[in-house]
Amino acid sequence: MTHAVTLLLGVHAHQPVGNFPEVIEDAHQRCYKPFLETLHAYPDFRFAAHFSGWLLDWLRERHPADMELLAQMVKRGQVELFSSGDTEPVLAAIPHRDRVGQLKTLNDKLTTWTDVKPTGAWLTERVWESAVVPALAETGIRYVTVDDYHFFCTGKSADELDGYFSTEEDGTRLDLFPISEALRYRLPFSPAHEVIAYLESLADRNQSAAIYFDDIEKFGIWPETYDWVYNRGWLKALIEGVLASPKIRTGTYADFHANNATRGIVYLPTTSYSEMNEWTLPMPAAGIYSSFLAAEKAAGRGDLHRPFLRGGIWRNFLTRYPEANWMHKRMQGLSARLGEIANPPQALVDDLYRAQANDAYWHGLFGGLYLPHLRRAVWNNIVALEAELDALHVRPAMASVDLDFDGKAETIAHTTALQVVIRNDGLAAAHELSSYPLMHNFGDTLRRYHEHYHDRIAHGPSEHHGEGIASAHDIIRFKHPISVEDIVPDALPRALWLDKLDGEALVDYLQTEGALSFARPHISKTYSLDASTVTVTWQLNGLAGRRFETALNLAMPSCDGFLGHYTLADGHIPGGFGQDLHLPAATSLSLDDGVLAGRLTLQTSLAGEIHGQPHQTVSQSEAGFEKIMQAVELRLGWTIPDDCHTLQLQLNIEPSRP
């Protein structure tokens, strides 16, 4: 009798909270819809699917007929739906109570929709820490999928990874399916007949399961995949070839789990998929790590040694990027406040869960932290939740705490309209400026970093040769022209009210007894808040004739789009945020943002020179290397008129006038 291997094929569908509707719609038309329509026509092809809760809600509201195809496949036993945290958080990065709440939210959503309770869960970015086991088990999850790489790190060989294994945390059991990297790199990039031949070879070796679970976006969104998978018939060829082969059968994880025993106990290290372990490292460590792996591979030792060369872990993103860490610690603080309320309003819980969506907290091959609209969505929810909590329980108007554990205390001052956060790091600059009415943090910027992939820019565009299509991991494309100057890292954070004297950055401010007061030789600096206005006052002593400057990096949602522009006092519009601005002598300037529906107005006590320009970073997208506008950089400069001068700058934030 011919032995058949069970293909456990799973696909994971996710769109970040706050992603542009047109992007999600495009993903549906090019990927989710044709994938579901194709699979619906083959009821004997069984598989698993995970749709993050936020995306599932969006699709069910806008494309009910398409999503009904998925529900029908679940009800006829063709599809097993996996759960996860509802907004796709990295479970290891949020508190236990929120892990349980997020999992229950999507569990209940799926059960209500399909009458089938999920028993499997997708781990966001396959980030494994054993601390997540209790929350998964508590919510009825019996198994999850992680990479075979996780198992290799324990000393397991590929031949041993046939079926599922078991682990425990404090006596609580959870079963683990190892995803095959060999399949991840074949689907959908290799020709269908090659994939089928590979699966049949597993059957010939008496393997019981071929385990695949990866992003559905590879089946239509990644470069060249829509034409390859649908127009050129790759997906149909794969399905029909699998169904025709006596050596391959399809199944759900639930059925395989019910009908097969565990392969034994295993304890996995804290890790994710192997590529993530490189992405989490800063330069130059990432470059050293990548070169070392490449050298081992070239010497024929790559697969043998790679499990023992693990690189970083997901949480390293919080040390790599202070912007992500600040966002994360703000989220954690609000989660703790919300946790003190018995039966909190659901709207507040929803705000918190949306603020925990993973995408804006990290950066790998594409997007993530580098996309301002994703960070903005997190901050929208953080600021909204904080305002709602303040309405329920008033907090002190000012506090000093090292919230982000960097060894430098932050002074947090707020009114009912805004909040400013100044870190005692020598800069006396604001790292957060949040407007509660606008639900926006104007300090939500990103400095330029040296990324591991920047070194590939000098190589120029690449071409793929041979059958199949290239993986996005291997393609070099350029959406925008990139120069060497575009990727020079920033020495200082992109904060607000960063000061210079005669062109030299001032980094030696010391916080004085007044919590919002700072001083250095010849200069004292004080912040004050009144309703929706921040006033910064500098006392400049013995500096007549010297050049003093301050810079504000302002996160403006319109970025370089047509809805954002500068406005002068006389109503004249000199240009948009994406254009350079030069005012030789001005005392006021407004920034109008149609996306935000808000206006910022600056007023100075002394006419000065104002320069404005877009602050851009360079990162990768599916379309190639691109420049992304992160902030409006405003530089205001004055020649100090006398030896005892008081300089004042006011910034008022208000909703746009109808």
Note down, in words, how this protein is organized:
The structure is a single chain. The model has no long low-confidence stretch (mean pLDDT about 95). The strands form four sheets. Strands 15, 16, 17, 18, 19, 20, 21, 22, 23, 24, 25, 26 and 27 form a 13-stranded antiparallel beta sheet that branches. Strands 1, 2, 3, 8 and 9 form a five-stranded parallel beta sheet that branches. Helix content is about 30%, strand content about 30%. It is elongated. The longest helix is centred in the middle third of the chain and has 21 residues, at about 370-390. The chain is α+β, with helices and mostly antiparallel strands. The chain contains 18 helices and 27 strands. The protein starts with a strand and ends with a strand. Helix 1 runs parallel beside helix 3 (about 65-75) and helix 16 packs antiparallel against helix 17 (about 345-355).
Proportion in helices: 25-40%
Query: What is the number of beta strands?
Result: 27
Cα-atom Rg, whole angstroms?
Answer: 27 Å
The class by helix and strand makeup works out as: alpha+beta
Q: Report the biggest beta sheet as strand number plus sense, adding barrel if it closes.
A: 13 strands, antiparallel
Report the uncertain regions. Answer: none
Mean pLDDT: 94
